[in-house]
Amino acid sequence: MSTAADIVSRLETLPRLRAMHGPTPLEEAHALSHHLGGPRIFIKRDDLTAAGLGGNKVRKLEFILGRAVAEGYDTVIVCGGYQSNLARIAAAMGARAGLRIELVLGGVPGEPHPICGNLLLDYLLGAQVHLVETEPRWDFGTVIEDLAARLAREGRRAMIMPLGGSNPQGMAGYIMATAEMMTQFAENDIAPEHLFVAVGSGGTYSGLALGECNLNPGYHVTGVSVSRRTDYLLDKVTAETVEAREVLGLPHVPAAQALTLIDDQIGAHYGAPTEAAREAIHLLARLEGVFVDPVYSAKCLAGLIDQIRSGRIGRQETVVFLHTGGSPALFAYDPAVLLPDIAA
To answer: CATH number of the domain at 57-165, out of 3.40.1160.10, 3.10.20.90, 3.30.230.30, 3.40.50.1100?
Structure first.
């Protein structure tokens, strides 16, 4: 039977393009906890992973781009929204590794995409940027395959990265993050019952769920969706974790009924700020001096706050909020959206 140490040792043999400054801090949010009347809240600062201004995608891309380099690819095609965090970090890590990064970035027809925030950084990093309209939102049609075919005709060898970096190699990054947090829990003499994380494409959540059932960190992972409904995510995560178990040689996979996903923080659509997200942005900034973005981390924090206020998380419990980064997206929003009283 594989132990946690065996699993970590096996994952450490995978090709890896190391770019992260870690371990990332685990900080107690004393003021936020006091404001909410408990529980103890710790922030896992994966917004401080450094590469490309940091974020959760660094852990995933270390393994995904590591595989690309090991298998001889010279180009990586990345898809996402106009303000994609994955695109920004892939462009930064690719620049350092000598990989050509092709970004296919889209949004629904009529969605504005000014060159600011993450998109500005993509251009600064020298990525090849292709802007397209997608309907529905994440349907890129044949654009990615057509681009890959054109690059092949030019003599390039291109890897197509799945949306969000949601594949077994990306999930390995968050199984390793689970082991990192377990060490930090022991150092801080804490035993968290809960971990909350934002869920977009689902890869980070899937990696954490695999970490939970294979490494036994003692907490249960709750994913707060920012774009998709729970039924869709349960099917997607279940299928992708089964694939990851086979590829990564893991002994266990989470059962669908053991997964906890909530979808009450999405709002009008992906990327649309909600009142709860605005409150979360203001609370964390003004109580802890930490920024969260309106797209992912603020909605996750809003979900956590709601669970505390409703009594579904006990006042005497301990919870970890995994900060996935994304703060450059703050600069893509009209100040009137985030600061309506001041901007007015």
So the answer is: 3.40.50.1100
Q: Which CATH number fits domain 4-55+167-343: 3.40.630.30, 1.10.260.40, 3.40.50.1100, 3.60.40.10?
A: 3.40.50.1100
Return the higher-pLDDT residue of 304 and 1.
Answer: 304
First CA to last CA distance, the chain = 62
What's the pLDDT tens digit per position in 54-80?
999 999 999 999 999 999 999 999 999
Q: Which of 13, 12, 44, 15 is nearest to 28 (CA)?
A: 44
Are the C-beta atoms of 319 and 39 separated by less than 8 Å?
Answer: yes
Contacts of 268 (CB under 8 A, 6+ apart): 274
* Active site (catalytic) residues: 84
pLDDT, tens digit, 9 for 90 and up, residues 285-310? 999 999 999 999 999 999 999 999 99
Which residue from 278, 303, 300 is spatially nearest to 204, judged by alpha carbons?
300
Cross-strand partners of 101: 76
Neighbours of 83 (CB within 10 A): 25
Question: What are the residues whose beta carbons fall under 8 Å from the beta carbon of 133, sequence distance 6 or more?
Answer: 106, 107, 108, 109, 111
Q: How much is the average pLDDT of 137-165?
A: 96
Angle at 217 between CA 246 and CA 237, to 5 degrees: 40
Find out whether the peptide bond into 109 is cis, omega within 30 degrees of 0. Answer: no
